[in-house]
Amino acid sequence: MKVDIHKSWQPYLQPEFDKPYFKKLANFVKTEYKNGTCFPPENQIFNAFNQCPFNQVKVVIIGQDPYHGDGQANGLCFSVNDGVAHPPSLINIFKEIEQDLKIPYPKSGNLLRWANQGVLLLNATLTVRAHQAGSHQKKGWELFTNAVIKLISDSKEDVIFLLWGGFAKQKSKLIDKEKHCILESGHPSPLSANRGYWFGNKHFSKTNFLLKQKGNKTIAW
């Protein structure tokens, strides 16, 4: 696996790339992509970092796994490529934005527009085997992405972390709550949303309020 990552991240993450676990992970991923279909495309594995340089990160959203269906994943959590049907969690994200901010439901599920405004859309596991959810978990990606979360916490200030669902909430222990803001809610998946744990969290208006308070530009969700 070629580590194709934006130069702004390199000085911070090079120590991780040099660790034995990451070299083992890179070999595993390289073999997986060589022997079968995996997602996202190999040149988009580090897309979250490439579309949101380190110095521009002001919001972090944490997902679990890339989508494992054909043509969906593009390296940004919860995001799908233009023209791809919106998965259920993304539909619920857009419905909450619609209610919260009174803006129309978007046609495209590609969240590149968020990444380019400083939203790091980070999956805990950056790759997956086609049609096999969770197939690349516990191979080393979680060690890497935990290090990324801790790096952001240690090296930056006033970042807003949106932790949706039990898996993402576990990451709060990596974040310095004195320096950063954490907003938590249920996951946008239908199972959680239909039980009342997602809708009405107003995370998008709250995020913009907090950004404005710190003199930062708000996100055009």
Automatic annotation (TrEMBL):
Short name of one Pfam family: UDG
Domain Uracil-DNA glycosylase-like residues, every copy: 50-211
Keyword set includes Hydrolase: yes
GO MF term list: uracil DNA N-glycosylase activity
InterPro entries, per the entry: UDG_fam1, Ura-DNA_Glyclase_AS, Uracil-DNA_glycosylase-like, Uracil-DNA_glycosylase-like_sf
Keyword annotations from UniProtKB, A to Z: Cytoplasm, DNA damage, DNA repair, Glycosidase, Hydrolase
Enzyme class: hydrolase
Reaction(s) catalysed (UniProt annotation): Hydrolyzes single-stranded DNA or mismatched double-stranded DNA and polynucleotides, releasing free uracil
EC code(s) of this entry: 3.2.2.27
HAMAP family: UDG (MF_00148)
Family: Belongs to the uracil-DNA glycosylase (UDG) superfamily. UNG family.
The protein's name in its UniProt record: Uracil-DNA glycosylase
Gene: ung
